């Protein structure tokens, strides 16, 4: 018997194609008055933007009816953290920040990791960038044994987003409530759909690896250039990951200002197209893995003004066994996590 998600794409198909679907479920999905939750009466008004630190992830929809809603819903892919992470986790205590791990994925690796921390009042957020070259202990992930020390971004290649969540929790001792993983191709397509980004590049970039060649000063980046900008490393500053993080934070700040200044919800068609791109490009935890739940989270995040978002980087120092790597600098790193 096929599950709900498998059958959603088949509810309008011929009977033979729907073979294996629960007939009660199929009828319920086809009958608008019997659809669960916000679909009753056919009309769904999802006037929310999901903006993680005002940047890489935006999910919005205008007036979505019938099949459009289910198309977006069926696009979503989720991971059950409660099943994947079996060892004790930091407690979820009242009054603490809401912590969301943002991951940028490319070719099976996570090149970008940021923790978005929304305070209890919901009026301030802090974005903590974690250098991918940071050497940290990595907990057991599935059948993969723990490592006394490993590069941070190896967690994703070892056990996916759940392993990254577990590694952040172990190094920070703070609870990660949710994660949003975005494919870099989806990031590129979102920027193109937004019409590009006007940004003030702090220094000229001539990078053969990323293919980005832009002068210093104001410039407009399309999706491909924007992706190269947030990934460029070796041609800026000293070539370290810390310089790339500066570019990422600059880009996120600029993008949050653009989103705040443009009313995309005025055009349901535009926002539906954007939502379709994003739902095909993101993976989330199961707790927020639906359009209504993402919209609810969006309600907490979109109230933020760009100036209410601060950007910091995990304090690090040279990792002595390998000068090309870094490690958390103590006691500064612990103090930073406790300050949230």
Structure, described:
With 340 residues, the protein is of the alpha+beta class. The protein has a domain at 81-259 and 303-338: Aminopeptidase. Helices cover 34% and strands 24% of the residues. It is built from eleven helices and 19 strands. The strands form seven sheets. The protein has a seven-stranded mixed sheet, sandwiched between helices. A two-stranded antiparallel ribbon has the order 1-4. Strand 18 and strand 19 (326-328) form a beta hairpin. The longest helix has 21 residues, at 241-261. It is globular. The protein starts with a helix and ends with a helix. Mean pLDDT is 80; it is low at 1-65.
List strands and helices in order, with pairings:
Layout: H1 4-8, H2 23-30, E1 43-45, E2 50-51, E3 58-59, E4 63-65, H3 67-75, E5 77-79, H4 81-84, E6 98-106, E7 109-118, E8 125-129, E9 135-138, E10 147-151, H5 154-172, E11 178-183, H6 184-193, E12 197-201, E13 205-207, E14 212-214, E15 217-221, H7 223-231, H8 241-261, H9 268-279, E16 282-285, H10 291-301, E17 309-313, E18 316-318, E19 326-328, H11 332-338
Parallel strand pairs: 5-16, 6-11, 8-17
Antiparallel strand pairs: 1-4, 2-3, 6-7, 7-8, 9-10, 11-16, 12-15, 13-14, 18-19
């Amino acid at each position: 018997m096929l599950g709900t998600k498998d059958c959603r794409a088949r509810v309008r198909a011929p009977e033979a194609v729907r073979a294996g679907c629960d007939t009660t479920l199929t009828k319920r999905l086809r009958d608008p008055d019997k659809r669960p939750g916000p679909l009753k009466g056919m009309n769904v008004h999802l006037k929310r933007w999901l903006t993680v630190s005002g940047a890489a992830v935006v999910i919005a929809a205008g007036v979505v009816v019938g099949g459009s809603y289910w198309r977006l819903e069926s696009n979503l892919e989720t991971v059950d953290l409660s099943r994947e992470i079996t060892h004790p986790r930091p407690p979820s205590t009242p009054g603490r920040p809401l912590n969301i791990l943002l991951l940028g994925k490319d070719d099976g690796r996570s090149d970008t990791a940021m923790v978005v921390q929304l305070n209890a009042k919901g009026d301030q957020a802090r974005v903590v960038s974690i250098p991918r070259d940071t050497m940290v202990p990595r907990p057991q992930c599935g059948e993969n044994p723990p490592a006394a020390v490993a590069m941070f971004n190896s967690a994703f290649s070892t056990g996916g987003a759940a392993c990254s969540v577990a590694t952040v929790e172990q190094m920070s001792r703070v609870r990660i409530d949710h994660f949003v993983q975005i494919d870099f191709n989806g990031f590129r397509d979102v920027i193109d759909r937004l019409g590009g980004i006007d940004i003030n590049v702090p220094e000229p970039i001539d990078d053969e690896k990323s293919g980005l060649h832009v002068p210093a000063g104001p410039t407009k980046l399309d999706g491909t250039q924007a992706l190269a900008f947030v990934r460029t490393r070796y041609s800026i500053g000293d070539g370290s990951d810390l310089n790339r993080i500066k570019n990422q934070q600059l880009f996120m700040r600029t993008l949050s200002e653009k989103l705040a200044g443009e009313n995309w919800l005025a055009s349901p068609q535009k926002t539906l197209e954007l939502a379709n791109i994003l739902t095909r490009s993101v993976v989330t935890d199961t707790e927020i893995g639906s359009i209504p739940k993402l919209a609810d989270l969006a309600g907490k995040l979109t109230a933020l003004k760009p100036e209410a978002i601060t950007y910091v980087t995990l304090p690090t120092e040279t990792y002595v066994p390998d000068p090309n790597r870094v490690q958390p600098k103590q006691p500064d790193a612990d103090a930073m996590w406790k300050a949230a």
